[in-house]
Each structure stands twice: as structure tokens, then as C-alpha cells.
Amino acid sequence: MIRDQSDILPSLRRKMEKMGEQIALARLRRNLPVNLVAERAGISRSTLWSIEKGSPNVAFGSYAKVLLALNLADDLLLVAKDDVLGKRMQDLNLTTKKRARRDT
Asked: What is the CATH number of the domain that holds 86?
């Protein structure tokens, strides 16, 4: 079943395509055939091809399995590691403590 892809933002689509391209390049650098990586990841060849195209219709777990098969699973820990925007937003919501009155 093909899902409607019209709700995917163009900027997100480009990032997913770039990620798929990087996964494909990692596989090729390791000189691993599609069949072997798909088998190691426990997915079909067509799913791997979809991942390498950056398809948003493939489950995130399948992307993670391919990264594990390519020895790149540690890269998942880099996602949102340095959340600069989130930290700034958190800092804006921090309340400052009131100072104690001085006794003179």
C-alpha cells in the first residue's frame, strides 16, 4: 500500500534523500552487496532500496537495522545530541531566584 507523500515538507524530503544517499555510499564503501546488507538487517532488498532513496514510507526501525548492519548504529546517538534551540528555549523559561533581603 502506497501512502500519500504530499504531507512531507520539501526540506524534510531532501534531508531524507541525503540520508539515503549517505547510507548507500556507506554500503558501497564497504563493498557490500544489497542482498547481504538486507539479509543482515532482516529486511527485503526492495526495502533497502527504498531506504537508499530516502523514502519516508519506510519504518524508522528499518533504517536503524540497516545502520546496525553497516556498523553505524552508534550514529543514532548523535540525533538531537546538541539541541541548541531546545536549550535556549529551556533557558528562557528558567525562573531566577529572588535575592534575600539584606539586613542592615
From this structure: 1.10.260.40
Q: Is 37 exposed, middle or buried (0-12, 13-18, 19+ CB in 10 A)?
A: buried
pLDDT tens per residue across span 25-67: 999 999 999 999 999 999 999 999 999 999 999 999 999 999 9
pTM, two decimal places: 0.76
> Locate cell 548504529: which residue?
73
Give yes or no for a contact between 23 and 53, defined as CB atoms under 8 angstroms apart: no
Domain span holding position 23:
10-93
d(CA 67, CA 61) in angstroms, rounded, equals 10
DSSP state string for 33-54: -HHHHHHHHTS-HHHHHHHHHT
